[in-house]
Design brief:
The protein is α+β, with helices and mostly antiparallel strands and about 350 residues long. The chain contains twelve helices and 14 strands. The protein has helices at about 10-25, 65-75, 80-90, 110-130, 190-195, 200-205, 215-220, 225-235, 250-255, 275-285, 290-295, 310-320; strands spanning about 30-35, 40-45, 55-60, 95-105, 130-140, 150-160, 175-180, 205-210, 215, 240-245, 265, 300-305, 325-335, 335-340. The strands form four sheets. A six-stranded mixed β-sheet has the order 10-12-7-13-11-14. Helix 1 (about 10-25) runs parallel beside helix 4 and helix 3 (about 80-90) runs parallel beside helix 4.
Length: about 350
């Protein structure tokens, strides 16, 4: 008896590494030391040696049950973008620039081509956020996961000069809220999505005119990565006073996280058009408006608080980065929280 008899194929692991190398190589930065396959990833501090007071920031997250759609549709090339986005967006909204990323894939059976496809998505997300993919782990766990399923998680590290950290301390009544459009549901709330729609081939492959594509394609659209847009706003000379990544918990949970005591966020729901996908979800699931905004991003993936004098400059920087921005509300004095009107 050998390890392969227990369900773990070491040779498949070697094959996976060889197939993913070309994708990983595309994410390399000059600060990366060594190559793929070592016991650890090394990254030189030269990337931030000229900062006055560099602060490292980190974030970790997974893709959640959105993976179930990837399994059903047998589409694995973009789910890695979601994994990167969930991590780098979190650190970017604190003012950090991503430096490097590591991923973790656990599967029931190692199919090398599938693993390499997943990693190609991770690498694509890393390139979008200027992060080097310096390491990872593929764990084959027979008997723990079904053969055709896997889990995917990641970990990102970024850096910011202390003076550039976005912490909300200067937030005050009269500041303007700017939202950046999401690409869809992103990577939160899919347990509810899977209750709203029947998760079968017929339903996912049904074309919806209002979506301009099939339901499955719309739901599997990868999470927006806002790193370049946020960097563009800062490079334009705008001080982002506070910032919130709209993930699980929607507006009601995430926007208050960027506030300080004595400030309240007032969001105008009519300041932008809620995307058709969310309207379809609300209708098909008979979901209340309050629950929609308490679960999903509803079309806004990142919210910035700015001085009114900086709004036009920020909006131009957002557009130049290829994103869509909306003025969605303002900061008022009051009890810490969010109000939708």
């Amino acid at each position: 008896m050998d390890y392969k008899d227990s369900g773990v194929d070491i040779e498949a692991g070697y094959r996976s590494v060889e197939l993913m190398k070309k994708h990983v190589k595309e994410t390399m930065r000059p600060e990366v030391l060594g190559g793929l396959g070592g016991f650890s990833g090394a990254f030189s501090a030269a990337a931030f040696k000229d900062m006055e007071h560099p602060i490292l920031m980190s974030g970790t997250d997974g893709v959640g049950t959105k993976l179930k759609l990837a399994f059903l549709m047998d589409k694995h090339d973009t789910i890695g973008i979601d994994c990167v986005a969930m991590c780098v967006n979190d650190i970017a909204c604190a003012g950090a620039k991503p430096l490097f990323f590591l991923d973790y894939i656990a599967c029931g059976k190692n199919f090398p081509e599938k693993i390499a496809t997943i990693v190609s998505g991770v690498a694509a997300g890393c390139k979008m956020s200027h992060a080097a993919l310096i390491g990872g782990e593929t764990a084959e766990m027979p008997g723990f996961y079904p053969e055709d399923e896997y889990d995917l998680a990641g970990f990102a590290v970024g850096v910011a000069d202390e003076k550039d950290i976005i912490n909300g301390k200067s937030l005050k009544a009269g500041d303007v809220l700017v939202g950046m459009a999401s690409s869809g549901v992103h990577s939160n709330g899919f347990s509810l999505v899977r209750k709203i729609f029947t998760m079968d081939e017929k339903t996912l492959n049904t074309h919806h005119d209002e979506l301009g594509r099939t339901l499955g394609e719309a739901l599997l659209e990868p999470t927006k990565i806002y790193v370049r847009a946020l960097e563009g706003v800062q490079e334009a000379g705008v001080r982002i006073k506070a910032c919130s990544h709209i993930t699980g918990g929607g507006f009601y949970e995430n926007i208050p996280r960027m506030l300080i005591d004595g400030t309240r966020a007032v969001v105008n729901k009519n300041s932008y058009e809620m995307p058709a996908l969310f309207k379809l979800m609300q209708k098909e699931g008979n979901i209340s408006e309050q629950m929609m905004y308490n679960t999903y991003n509803c079309g806004i993936g990142m919210v910035l608080a700015l001085d009114p004098a900086d709004v036009d400059t920020a909006m131009k920087a957002i557009k130049d980065a290829g994103e869509t921005g909306y003025v969605i509300g303002e900061i008022k004095a009051g009890e810490k929280g969010v109000e939708l009107c």
